[in-house]
Design brief:
Blueprint lengths: L1 H13 L21 E5 L14 E4 L6 E5 L5 E5 L13 E4 L4 E7 L4 E9 L5 E3 L8 E7 L2 E5 L1
Antiparallel strand pairs: 1-10, 2-3, 3-4, 4-9, 5-6, 6-7, 7-8, 9-10
């Protein structure tokens, strides 16, 4: 009986009918985007990034990037596309200033409208929600007062 069950499971994994037809759909998929930029923290618009907990929004990546100077004194460049059903328009990450967490949803004039209700930490780690993966990050390196962000 165990052999029959094992063969059935193996057949299911090898059979095309058990596989997702669209390899770019589903959980954890975030489309690749070319990111290659330099941030000069001497410039007034980036000067606050020297302080722990500060962040800026960069209009690159898929739905934007948060550049965060985390409380561990490291810089994180985090894609604002949620890893749960990333193709949905509402699956964008926003910072909740009250909880200092990243949340999936949409900001409106009067309230925050959740999309999948997933939450993430400032270092991109998954905290709660239907998402199963951390947020996509980009490499950040520092040389003096310059930050280099790339993938």
């Amino acid at each position: 009986m165990k052999k029959i069950l094992s063969l059935f499971i193996l057949f299911c994994f090898l059979s095309p009918s058990c596989k997702d037809e669209n390899p770019y759909a589903g959980d954890c998929f975030v489309p690749d985007a070319n990111v290659n930029m330099t941030i000069n923290m001497e410039l007034p618009e980036y000067y606050n990034l020297r302080n722990l907990g500060e962040y800026i929004v960069i209009n690159q990546g898929n739905k934007g990037i948060y550049l965060i100077h985390n409380y561990d004194d490291l810089y994180y460049a985090i894609e604002r596309t949620c890893t749960y059903e990333s193709e949905r328009e509402c699956s964008q990450i926003h910072i909740d200033p009250k909880t200092l967490q990243l949340r999936c949803g949409t900001e409106s004039d009067t309230a925050f409208i959740t999309c999948c209700a997933s939450t993430f930490s400032f270092n991109s780690s998954l905290l709660t929600g239907p998402a199963r993966c951390n947020l996509k990050t980009y490499k950040v390196s520092q040389n003096g007062n310059s930050l280099y962000i790339r993938n």
